[in-house]
Amino acid sequence: MPFRSQPENAILEKIHRSFRVAPRGRNARASRNSLPLGMGDDAALFSPSPGCQTILTCDWFLQGTHFLRDKHSADAVGWKSLARAVSDIAAMGGTPRCFLLSLALPQDATSAWLDAFLVGLRRAAKRFACPLAGGDTTKRREILINITVIGEVASGRALRRDAANPGDFIYVSGRLGAAQQGLQRLRKRRGAAGRANPRLQKHLYPEPRLALAGWLSTKRLATAAMDLSDGLSTDLPRLCSASGVGAIIDATSLPTVSRATASPSQAMNLALNGGDDYELLFTVPRNKAKKIPANFAGIPMTKIGKITKSRKVLLSGPSGLPKILRPQGWDPFL
Amino acid sequence: MPFRSQPENAILEKIHRSFRVAPRGRNARASRNSLPLGMGDDAALFSPSPGCQTILTCDWFLQGTHFLRDKHSADAVGWKSLARAVSDIAAMGGTPRCFLLSLALPQDATSAWLDAFLVGLRRAAKRFACPLAGGDTTKRREILINITVIGEVASGRALRRDAANPGDFIYVSGRLGAAQQGLQRLRKRRGAAGRANPRLQKHLYPEPRLALAGWLSTKRLATAAMDLSDGLSTDLPRLCSASGVGAIIDATSLPTVSRATASPSQAMNLALNGGDDYELLFTVPRNKAKKIPANFAGIPMTKIGKITKSRKVLLSGPSGLPKILRPQGWDPFL
Fold first, then answer.
1. What's the average model confidence in pLDDT over B211-233?
2. Torsion sign, CA atoms A266, A268, A274, A276
3. pLDDT band at A151 (very low <50, low <70, confident <90, very high)
4. Do A134 and A232 lie in a common domain?
5. What's the number of CA atoms in the CB half-sphere (13 Å) around residue A256?
6. Do residues A28 and A136 both lie within one domain?
7. ipTM of the complex
8. Has residue A334 been placed in a domain?
9. Interface check B320 vs A, CB under 8 A
């Protein structure tokens, strides 16, 4: 087989070998059945489930922009590149089914770095029951990653951004700002960090809120939802704009990082403007609010404000008049 | 709406505006119906057609690797980035339904370059009845493009690479090497080239063989198929390896570029090793060969050899013994 000697094929084979074992877990059988033809052909074939809509999302994960080669271990890059794309599936109330990996690598990343990257990526693929279906590889001076995730949701049950109504309560899952705090810690460290450090977990190994979002969708509890990727001050106005509404947030209610690790103003700034949390932001009609538990599978659920008719997005504090919440989250073009 | 002032949102709105009008054409209504939620949410929703499998493919298109900013017009980059990904859908015998665009841009490409890019991309999206469903944008020193195309094919009718049988005849569509010849011409020119030059069309504005591949799939004429993206000498061994077979190609039968524009050895080299043709390579059982016309909708169909039991991929010439066909097509890692 003469083509075996070609370098691109060698990389494809390494990826293929790494993902040969199908993922295990809750949705593993569904994933296998829905993917009759994976890697190796011009394209992959996916068998959609009856009664479901397909969810499509893609995400950049670029060296220098989204991760630093000297700070983020290849294992963490593998995990996070898939986790953040899967988070968009969660944000729709869906279940991931498979993903495509586009990878551009410098020559010096084609052996040890690639091996460790594939370990982290494969662990994430198993966790999310989301097998690799195909992709594209090429050579590049820097590591470029693009991941497309294909998911499914029962028809008509997707959690959209554009359906929040005035009077709905606004909730978030988890604690806001923990990922950004992890990044700040990482920047002060020497060398790369991997799985060992629990204070960096939220930044390096985010967990998309699949179970929570699936429950909200199935029980028809949420009117609108999105994942928090760029920070509450940037993401909440997006949800409001899509729904043609406004919001008022109670600053004192925000689930911030522990006061033992940050000053009150640092904690507030992280909660409002820190990116990469991949927590769920969702709205619930007032008459369904009592069905939202204080925590869901160990994740705190916090009511942080409500949707308003006025299109302004406001932040009210312990004293004084509410102020406009200005987007100060992550924007690659700033 | 405070978020409007943010630069990333400005770029997203430009893309959104450019694709607001749904594409027209044969499959336009199917495309609209199958895309109930496009851009603007966390992810897109796609309604799969009953009785169909979904086809998934993604492709890099990177400045410096796949195009040169000073040689390829932004319009051509827009067209080709989608056309080459759609070609993978054609290679499966399918119909494109929608695509995702991941775009990373330097600041100096966010106005005139982006506008022209979107014109070419939108024209391709209309031609292929393949609307934009979503994507991701970020900032980068160089222009990075990744395109995911979602297509469909009747269940069980996909044209795979792994189903060629010994004795099958091997066909190609079109003339091989014309795209590479166009690239050679482009490299000798000054400045960027766009739509005006017909001698560069095949390189700048490739046409995926959707109608031909759909016909082969519907009529069950082809056993295996793939598109020629990296050159016959690289791609044919891939098809053979996937099918566990070999092939013998008759060099004298290859549909090369016109002898008026290249010496016989140049023409042969272009036909064997030139990439980017996006013609269809397919195999047909001997008893169905008479159903393959000499041309299909104006595109020549040429029988170039046959599949063998031996796993070797051989090239026979006008004289002497057949030689091993060595992969000398495009490989980004060489």
1. 97
2. positive
3. very high
4. no
5. 21
6. yes
7. 0.91
8. no
9. no
Range of the domain at A186: 169-324
Number of compact structural domains in chain B? 2
Domain of A195: which CATH number?
3.90.650.10
Q: Which of A41, A55, A98 to mutate to test the interface with B (most CBs of B within 10 A)?
A: A41
- Shared domain for B21 and B61, answered yes or no, is yes
Kindly state whether residues B90 and B192 are assigned to the same domain: no
Q: What is the pLDDT of residues B97-109, one digit of tens each?
A: 999 999 999 999 9
Query: Looking at residue B2, what is its pLDDT?
Result: 26
**Is residue B332 situated within a structural domain?**
no
Check residue A197 and give its pLDDT. 78
Whether A198 contacts chain B with CB within 8 A: no
User: Which pLDDT belongs to residue A4?
Assistant: 31
Q: How far apart are CA B108 and CA B121, in angstroms?
A: 19
Put simply, the answer to whether B58 touches A151 (Cβ < 8 Å) is no
pTM: 0.92
Q: Are residues A82 and A226 in the same domain?
A: no
Q: Do residues B120 and B194 share a domain? A: no
Write out chain A residues lying below 8 Å of B130, CB-based: none
Residues A253 and B28: their CA atoms lie apart, in Å, by 48
Does residue A188 have a pLDDT over 70? yes
Q: How far apart, in whole angstroms, are the C-alpha atoms of residue B305 and residue B169?
A: 6
Is B181 contained in some domain?
yes
At residue B319, the pLDDT reads 79
Residue numbers in B near A151 (CB within 8 A): 43
Residues B177 and B149 in one domain: no
B134 and B180 together in one domain? no
Closest-CA residue of B relative to A226 is B42
A280 touching B (Cβ < 8 Å): no
Of B30, B13, B130, B333, the closest CA to residue A103 belongs to B333
CB contact under 8 A, B55 and A65: no
User: How many Cβ atoms are within 10 Å of A114's Cβ, its own excluded?
Assistant: 20
